[in-house]
Amino acid sequence: MKIDRLFEGQEATWPPAARHLTGPWCLRDGQAGGKRVSAATLEGGFEPEAIAAAETGMARLGQTPLFMVRPGEGALDDALEARGYLRVDPVTILSGPAAAIAADPPAPLSTFTIWEPLAIMTELWAENGIGPARMAVMDRVQGPKTAVLGRRKDRAAGTAFVALDRDMAFVHAVAVSPEHRRQGTAVNMMRAAAQWALDGGASTLSVLVTEDNHAALALYASLNMTNVGQYHYRMMAPQKA
């Protein structure tokens, strides 16, 4: 699986409000939807002096300078570090065959795929820090998409967002209520997402996880999803008062 295709798929399934191509940079207007939809990426040849133009462009968007550093961008990473940018939120992209993940289906009535999301799903997301700005990201997705509702003991227990980009599907915004964690809810939702992806023509299912989220990494490993790529961000340390 080519890394460029992975980044293309993740952006199609979790898009910024706007993209601005400026010199070698792609600047993203994230509308407060999180780092992934707000970070600048290098799309051309790199020269250290070009960083200032990216910083200016992000400031014009009303955003704090933030860069996503992908595999093979060591020169950019070193230059940002030299300017005082901190390495934050390293992310692992995990992927697996949708057919294999869906092979052991969840129990009847334990999951539902629904679009538009129900009110209880929006509430579950909000309780887990996924508010209107990230809901707006979901709304912006142009391709096939759905939300997965996980149920346990006849109660709404979790939710996730799934979207399709040609032959690959990505799961985003996985949220499970604390009292239902480690009880199989997330596994059931992932299996339901995989079946939905298969029905839509996808061959792979992928998810992005920060490296410090050990519980999530273990969960996806149990589904035989493997590391297919990594990236991290660079941002300035907050100014002290």
UniProtKB/TrEMBL annotation:
GO molecular function, one term: acyltransferase activity, transferring groups other than amino-acyl groups
PROSITE patterns for the chain: GNAT
Keywords: Transferase
A UniProt-annotated Pfam family: Acetyltransf_1
InterPro entries referenced in this protein's UniProt entry, alphabetically: Acyl_CoA_acyltransferase, GNAT_dom
Domain annotation N-acetyltransferase: ranges: 107-241
Protein name: GCN5-related N-acetyltransferase
Organism: Rhodovulum sulfidophilum (Rhodobacter sulfidophilus)
